[in-house]
Write a structure and sequence with these properties.
By secondary structure, the protein is an alpha/beta fold. It has 8 helices and 8 strands, in the order βαβαβαβαβαβαβαβα.
Length: about 230
């Protein structure tokens, strides 16, 4: 696939690297240092190049939005309309300027969907640090790190699930954008954000949430740290 990366920092840059290795094409964008962006793209090889945000949005079958919360509006203004595009939203609402209460009890994913009308938004790649994602991608199946996702478009989620797998992770589907709260910042009791899950434990967690029950105890894999 062609993937336009808006925000080629730690999360975006690592995802781009993993996808290029899996055979996809990427276009990196949204950097204050265009020369560095071009150098980063060159390191990824012939399947990667750098460009403007508008070029990334036009290029991508999928658009990977990975900018600070306070820069979302600026990035979207540069991107232009994203109608019909699958957008993977990795943004997290935190920091002094990102702590405002969202209207109408929306999740951050719902709020962002309204900021890009017509886009087929899927929330994912946001629950774990860039360093952890970089170091733990591609484990054996039963030990794979789970990336949770949420979205209202079933076909878009199927595409994103495939990209999660291609990047070396397992996928767990929380449901619609209204269900994304447990995977959104901040890290807290009774939430998934900031926690490592593997497939078996993620399945139990998703089942509990869908049943309206409390999450099971957060998994602790410290006894198996030598596995990955």
């Amino acid at each position: 696939m062609k993937i336009g990366v808006i925000g080629a920092g730690r999360i975006g840059g690592n995802a781009a690297r993993l996808w290029v290795a899996a055979g996809h094409e990427v276009l990196l964008s949204f950097s204050r240092d265009q020369a560095r962006l071009e150098a980063d793209a060159a390191k990824l090889g012939e399947r990667a190049r750098a460009g403007t945000v508008a070029e990334a949005a036009a290029f991508g079958d999928v658009v990977f939005l990975s900018v600070p919360w306070t820069q979302v509006d600026a990035a979207l203004a540069e991107a232009g309309p994203l109608t019909g595009k699958i957008v993977i939203d990795t943004t997290n609402q935190f920091g002094r300027e990102g702590s405002q209460t969202l209207p109408d009890g929306q999740t951050a994913a719902e709020f962002n969907q309204r900021r890009m009308p017509g886009a087929r938004l899927v929330k994912s790649f946001n629950t774990l640090t860039a360093a952890f994602q970089a170091s733990e991608a591609g484990r054996p199946a039963e030990q794979r790190v789970v990336l949770f996702m949420a979205g209202d478009d079933a076909d878009a989620k199927q595409v994103v699930a495939g990209l999660i797998d291609d990047a070396g992770f397992a996928v767990a589907d929380l449901g619609g954008l209204a269900d994304a709260g447990p995977m959104e910042a901040p890290r807290r009791a009774g939430a998934l954000y900031g926690e490592e899950y593997r497939p078996a434990e993620a399945e139990l967690a998703v089942a509990a949430l869908r049943a309206g029950q409390a999450l099971p105890a957060t998994p602790d894999y410290s006894e198996h740290s030598d596995e990955g």
